[in-house]
Amino acid sequence: MDSRAGDEKIKRIGDRKNTLLIISSDNGATKVSDDGKDYGHKSCGNLHGYKSALHEGGHRVPFIVRWPNVVKPNTKTNELVSIMDIYATVADILGKKKPEGDGISFLQILKDPNAASKRTQMVHHTYSGDYALRYGNWKFIPNRSGKDGSWSYELYDLKKDPYETKNLADEMKERTKELETILFTSINM
Fold this sequence. Notes:
Elements: H1 5-13, E1 21-23, H2 56-59, E2 64-66, H3 86-94, H4 107-111, E3 121-125, E4 131-135, E5 138-144, E6 151-157, H5 173-186
Antiparallel strand pairs: 1-2, 3-4, 4-5, 5-6
Organism: Niabella ginsengisoli
Pfam families: SGSH_C
Protein name: Sulfatase-like hydrolase/transferase
């Protein structure tokens, strides 16, 4: 998308100050370009992992909003939202019934960037069938050995360690077990 594509369409619609424009992605960037070459761009910054990974580089993406009558320019928040929350948010804006599904409106965050997210957890899933749980500031990743079926775990405090450099699973066994239960209950495992 270039700097003019969205703006030109909004001009044709006519109501620029009251038009909500959202730019995001469904997952993190790939490590290599479409031509298969690694140009060293670090598209995920210093986040751990890339597209298809359960780590932050695979799931944390920009979420850019332009809605001049509601959202002030350069507003930032670190609250948890998901691309699957867009339909619920649009329904909330329009005063309509929330559509079926897991979406949760984030309208309160658009109106006030200091508001807390209604979304307190999110399950991440890869196409290969692996899962992780984001629960508040915590990220829990269970790993099953393909050799003997045993489990190992990763636990990160994303508020203190957004780059997932220090695995706390062995130090925080109770928190690890709590999040394992929440995740496995959520996915019916």
